[in-house]
Automatic annotation (TrEMBL):
Record protein name field: Transmembrane 4 L six family member 18
One GO CC term, this protein: membrane
Membrane as UniProt keyword: yes
TM segment ranges: 7-28, 48-70, 91-116, 159-182
Protein family: Belongs to the L6 tetraspanin family.
Top-level division of the source organism's lineage: Eukaryota
Subcellular location, record wording: Membrane
Keyword list, A-Z: Membrane, Transmembrane, Transmembrane helix
UniProt topology in membrane: Multi-pass membrane protein
InterPro entries on file: L6_membrane
Length: 218
């Protein structure tokens, strides 16, 4: 029961993180709340990878739901042996947690690339990526952000939202990684304890047989 509560808490944490990822990703499509730039395809290319909407959002919600079901191993049994059932559930939990690391890691990488690339905006030279050749150095020099004339304050908009996505997906990676470590250790330690028990039983049988043989000889 205690392990279910602990695992369930970790899984429940993924749900608000996924919901916030969806919200933040949607906001990236509407700089300053305007729909014109999305309809005319005047947004940074990385927002169209749906990193927060599909991967760190919808897919992570599915992962969280499955993990919550798997954590409640008191209700679901996949084989006759209770130990077998628990190990099978833990193995599935490791697999889905690893999948969670993959989808949230994708969001983390794409968001970081979008942050470094900078926004697609209108400057005095027209529409282009004003900071593409700076390798992210523009992030520490806010005095050049004014190069982007339209959308207004688009640099701040992208920096804040992509940074939030990086934080949310990073937390998802950490939570899923913790789950993988915990359940792998339980699986491996459980297998080790079974081996020890079998070895101890075999040693006891050998000792008993030796004693009986000595008694017969005497």
């Amino acid at each position: 029961m205690g392990s279910w509560k602990y695992g369930g808490c970790l899984s429940c944490l993924l749900i608000p993180l996924a919901l916030w990822s969806i919200i933040v990703n949607i906001l990236l499509y509407f700089p300053n709340g305007q729909t014109f730039y999305a309809s005319s395809n005047k947004l940074t290319s990385y927002v169209w990878y749906f990193e927060g909407l599909c991967f760190s959002g919808v897919m992570m919600l599915i992962v969280a739901a499955v993990l919550l079901v798997l954590d409640n191993d008191n209700r679901y049994k996949c084989c006759q042996s209770e130990n077998c059932s628990k190990k099978y559930m833990k193995l599935l939990s490791v697999i889905f947690s690893a999948f969670g690391i993959a989808v949230s890691g994708y969001c983390l990488v794409i968001s970081a690339l979008g942050l470094v690339q900078g926004p697609y905006c209108r400057t005095q030279d027209g529409w282009h990526y004003a900071f593409e050749g700076t390798a992210g150095r523009f992030l520490t020099n806010s005095s050049i952000w004014s190069r982007c004339l339209e959308p207004a304050h688009v640099v701040e908009w992208n920096v804040i939202l992509f940074s939030i996505l990086i934080t949310l997906s990073g937390l998802q990676v950490i939570i899923c990684l913790i789950r993988v470590v915990i359940h792998l250790s339980k699986i491996l330690c459980g297998t080790y304890s079974v081996i020890i028990q079998v070895t101890d039983t075999h040693s006891s049988l050998c000792t008993s047989s030796t004693l009986l043989l000595l008694l017969k000889i005497q």
